[in-house]
Design a protein that fits this description.
Helix content is 13%, strand content 37%. It is elongated and about 100 Å long. The protein contains nine helices and 29 strands. By secondary structure, the protein is mainly beta. Strands 13, 14, 15, 16, 17, 18, 19 and 20 form an eight-stranded antiparallel sheet that branches. A hairpin with a 6-residue loop joins strand 6 (127-136) and strand 7.
């Protein structure tokens, strides 16, 4: 790839392989001593303390409610060919894939979907979104590849929140666990210049966790617990309250009492207790008799009032007042009645029940689902399989994908059109009817249908309607060159560790 204010890293550490799919050995340099290549932009997504809470926050309901992250991912219109072309900046090289426990899918005429492709979920401004992604081979079996704009918000210049990866995602299920993002590694030209020729990211994740249920604990355990937790109050008998009160030497969260007062409206025509003024609807006010000390429920004509409000207040008001437009003015009239009530008191007894969500260590990502291989400086005319979760409708309104199941495309790459909006000048494209949602999904060369593995040589960056006919017809990827390898190599040697699930 030619560079425009873009830094160039040529062969790194002698691990480049000229041809073929021979696996280059990953360096064993300790993460703490590892030199960071110049274009790498690295950052933290979560620490070990927060990660368990993040995993627990992604319930099945929240996963289903998340929306595809459509920002900065698609474009429509007649597009011109780019005047710049992607090209290799060194020898080709590759890292071999790792299968899932040595399992194979056997022979099939159909395409066997990879188990290590899934969805990445995250939050932007507190709202849940998702893109596609894949597990990729690394020293510690803890690496995910996705699109750069699915981990870094270029508008706010910050990383997304609560990032997790769920391989094999299907309808709110996480069959191999939830993997919380720990560290993210991007190309600096993406974060600084918002250059989509570098729209890729490699995310290190913690050991996976599986949500196994919940259990009731004491308050001390509850207060110390760092994962998802909640408390609710339950009514108990006076005897149970007294026992806990005696054991604790007074009221605590284990047992406490609450005095409650009630008002009983006296039968019509009787007195008792005290007189109470209450706002009612116009209908109830009209039914009530004029005030008479001998009855218990009566109009209070001196207690009616009308206010003029603005249109917004008028439309939002849901109280008992009577709404009416008078001479173009928005009015609300309030009506009151007086009635006799008898008051009574009662004491109820409660205890607070403390709950925590429980987890099981699901192990390392690559050990569970394997990792796709990685390759760079390949031919710009290679043939690719691409996998992801398209979901949006075509621009003409035709919705052919749900986003709940993985789909695939296959085609020979060519130069992508220039997309000035995203500074994309040297991307590759294949013909594909994916709609947005597949963003971040892998482009794989030499995909083995039996092993469900291949070599990641791109990720879905943009979804394009290149002829302006309101139908998406192309997906694009940045070209993976030596810069990309340098960032991948750095990320592939970072250790994250596992979460404590107790």
């Amino acid at each position: 790839m030619n560079t425009r204010a873009k830094r160039l890293i040529l062969p790194l550490g002698g691990a480049l392989i000229a041809t073929g799919m021979i696996g280059a050995t990953l360096t064993t340099t300790a993460a703490s001593a590892q030199a960071k290549p110049s274009p790498v932009k690295s950052g933290s997504l979560a620490n070990g303390t927060d990660a368990k809470a993040i995993a627990g926050s992604w319930t099945a309901g929240k996963l289903k409610s998340a929306k595809s992250y459509l920002e900065d991912s698609s474009l429509s219109g007649k597009m011109k060919a780019s005047t710049r072309k992607a090209s290799a900046d060194g020898k080709a090289g590759s890292i071999a894939p790792q299968g899932a426990g040595g399992k194979t899918a056997g022979s099939s005429k159909n395409i066997n979907l990879p188990t290590n492709v899934g969805k990445v979920f995250f939050q932007v401004d507190g709202k849940p979104y998702w893109c596609s992604g894949t597990s990729i081979q690394s020293k510690y079996h803890n690496l995910v590849a996705t699109a750069g704009h699915c981990v870094y918000d270029t508008d706010k210049n910050k990383y997304v929140d609560n990032f997790v990866f769920i391989p094999g995602y299907y309808q709110g299920k996480a069959p191999w666990g939830i993997y919380v993002g720990a560290k993210v590694n991007l190309h600096d030209d993406f974060t600084v210049y918002e250059d989509y020729d570098y729209d890729y990211a490699f995310v290190n994740v913690y050991n996976g966790v599986k949500q196994t249920g919940e259990k009731i604990v004491d308050k001390t355990t509850y207060d110390a617990y760092k994962g998802p937790k909640w408390a609710n109050d339950e009514e108990i008998s006076k005897e149970e309250y007294q026992k806990k009160y005696d054991e604790k030497g007074g009221e605590t969260a284990d047992a406490w009492s609450k005095s409650t007062g009630t008002e009983i409206v006296m039968p019509w025509g009787t007195k008792g207790g005290k007189k109470v003024l209450k706002e009612v609807s116009k209908e109830d006010y009209d039914k009530a008799p004029a005030w008479n000390a001998k009855v218990n429920y009566s109009k209070a004509p001196s207690k009616t009032s009308t206010e003029i409000v603005d249109e917004v207040t008028y439309n939002k008001y849901t109280g008992p007042g009577y709404k009416k437009i008078v001479d173009s003015a928005y009015t609300i009239t309030h009506y009151f009645v007086k009635y006799w009530v008898q008051e009574s008191t009662a004491v109820k007894y409660y205890k607070t029940v403390f709950h925590i969500r429980t987890f099981q260590d699901a192990g390392r990502l690559g050990d569970n689902v394997g990792g796709q291989g990685f390759t760079w400086n390949r031919s710009t005319k290679s043939k690719y399989f691409s996998f992801g979760y398209p979901t949006s409708a075509h621009l003409d309104g035709d919705k052919v994908y749900t986003g709940e199941t993985m789909k695939w495309c296959y085609g020979q790459a060519g130069a992508a059109p220039a997309v000035a909006k995203y500074k994309a000048e040297e991307q590759l494209a294949i013909k594909c009817a994916f709609t947005p949602g597949a963003t971040g999904g892998p482009w794989l060369i030499q995909y083995s249908n039996a092993k469900r593995t291949g070599y990641v040589n791109g990720v879905v960056s943009l979804t394009l309607d290149t002829d302006g006919n309101k139908r998406y017809d192309r997906i694009t990827t940045p070209y993976f060159n030596s810069d990309t390898y340098g960032i991948y190599k750095y990320a592939a040697n970072l250790w994250t560790g596992k979460l404590t699930t107790s």
